[in-house]
Design a protein that fits this description.
Strand content: under 5%
Order of helices and strands: HHHH
Helix content: 55-70%
Structural class: mainly alpha
Largest sheet: none
Distance between the termini: 138 Å
Oligomer: single chain
Length: about 130
């Protein structure tokens, strides 16, 4: 009894080969152009440098705020300077204060409501500093 051998189908190995070549092509394309590919590395490095610069600017701003907040420490505050700054900020004075208005150059401004001349103000200031 003669037996006939069946030839294996040629399309199965061909299909496996085409699938593997296609997968290798996908991997090659992803290695070059993908999100983490070699061409995107330049963009990532530029982004990293930009973020480092932004981070250093923000760190300097944080340090500035920390320094300003540390100035409010109760052990470091000078009450005289604090009240002087608060009164200057609020434009307030005590009844016993002598208020001398000055122009941009630092010279006293003499108005019609002023009773003291510039020389009298200078003498008064020098007389108070001598005590």
């Amino acid at each position: 009894m003669p037996t006939r051998l069946k030839r294996p189908a040629f399309w199965r190995p061909l299909a496996v080969t085409v699938a593997l070549v296609g997968f290798q092509g996908y991997l090659g394309y992803s290695a070059l152009n993908g999100q983490f590919g070699t061409l995107s590395q330049k963009q990532m490095k530029a982004d990293i440098e930009e973020l480092k610069a932004e981070s250093s600017v923000l760190q300097a701003e944080i340090d500035s705020y920390r320094h300003r907040a540390s100035l409010f420490d109760a052990s470091r505050l000078d009450p005289d300077i604090l009240t002087e700054q608060a009164r200057a900020l609020l434009s307030m004075a005590r009844p016993e204060d002598i208020v001398v208005m000055v122009d941009e150059s630092g010279k006293p401004v003499l108005g019609s409501s002023s009773k003291l001349a510039e020389q009298q103000l200078t003498n008064l200031i020098q007389g108070n500093s001598g005590r």
